[in-house]
Amino acid sequence: MKLAIGIGIAAIVWSALPSAAQTKVRVGNVNTASDIGIYLAHKKGFFKAEGLDVEFIGFDTAARMIAPLGTGELDVGGGTVSAGLYNAYARKIGITIVADKGSSKPGYNFSQLMVRKDLVDSGRYKTFADLKGLKIATAARGTGNAATLNFALKLGGLTFKDADIIELGFPQHAPAYANKAIDASITNEPSASLVEQRGLALRVDKKDEVYPNHQTAVLLYSDTFRKNRPDIALKFMRAYIKGVRVYNDALKGGRIAGPNADEVVAALVEYSEIKDAKLHRETTPAACDPDGGLNIASLDDDLAFFKAEGVIEDKSITAATVIDTSFAQKVVAELGPYKPQDAR
Q: Which DSSP helix (H) or strand (E) runs through 68?
């Protein structure tokens, strides 16, 4: 009887302490479609299975994550690469790119050049050259979002000086179009589909000409996390890549339309600000490498743009300087390369 009571008390104590076994990981997110790998890892219990208690902290752009990542207030971040990342690295503020989080590949161009509908309908906008003189929104200067706009302007024979460029977070693009406060924008999904659904602006890069194969978003680790807690960082990466692979299983024909599309859409509805499942099914999803691979050439292109804009402090820095793919490589070595669901 005493033994039974002892076992019972031990069971009660153990059940009362489940959170103690979970390691807190603070993750910054910008509420775009490219956050889906993290959302799925959370929803499907991959983080929990690794003993991780993930706390999401919202930002309007990845550039705003740089300071808290550098101080260790954030463990993980993600979004478009910014000049601030390179400048922070040059100042010995530890932040590192560790995996792909989203790219614009043919059929999966989730970062869109948009122009206000009345300007297209009236003929004011017909080609990239007509961006001249327009008020154009990007999430922030010195980011991959701004680099995308730079490529669009170049296709029209223009430079940044030929347009009125303003900084505006993606959720503010729809009201800005409605109030005619902006004429054009580089807008990420799902905000792009929301803007188009409301008849406020149109996607004008129909052939994915602006920036094909652009490494649009990346996963970031703080050095405090990466160096001081490498075992936890590896666990996070394992769960993340599993989430990304679930996401890839849902991609088909440039839409979330694969065999497990329902659970991916459900995750987007649950975790993102857009609660319309139909809208998520109509968005152009991001491509996301199921093995965490990065397009370093694209990152170098963006860095060259940042240097040309005069926003990089150390001109000798390269993209490779701030990359550590060892965590993703270890996970892929363990799990094996990704195979599509129908090939398993």
A: helix 66-71
Could you tell me the end-to-end alpha-carbon distance of the chain, in angstroms, rounded to an integer?
52
Omega before residue 18 within 30° of 0, cis: no
Q: What are phi and psi of 245, to 5 degrees?
A: -70, -35
Residue 135 · residue 166 · CB < 8 Å? yes
CATH number (3.40.190.10, 2.50.20.10, 2.40.50.100, 3.30.200.20) of 111-203 reads 3.40.190.10
3-state secondary structure 180-207: CCCCEEEEECCHHHHHHHCCCEEECCCC
Q: Which of 241, 323, 332 lies closest to 38 in space, CA to CA? A: 241
The yes/no answer on whether domain 22-105+214-343 falls in CATH 3.40.190.10 is yes
Q: What is the pTM of this model?
A: 0.84
Tens-digit pLDDT profile for residues 53-108: 999 999 877 778 888 999 999 999 988 788 988 999 899 889 999 999 999 888 89
Domain spans in the chain, listed from the N-terminal domain onward: 22-105+214-343, 111-203
Tell me the C-alpha distance between 80 and 88, whole Å.
Answer: 15
Which element (helix H / strand E) includes 244?
helix 230-249
Token pair 């309007």: residue:
60
Amino acid at 53: D
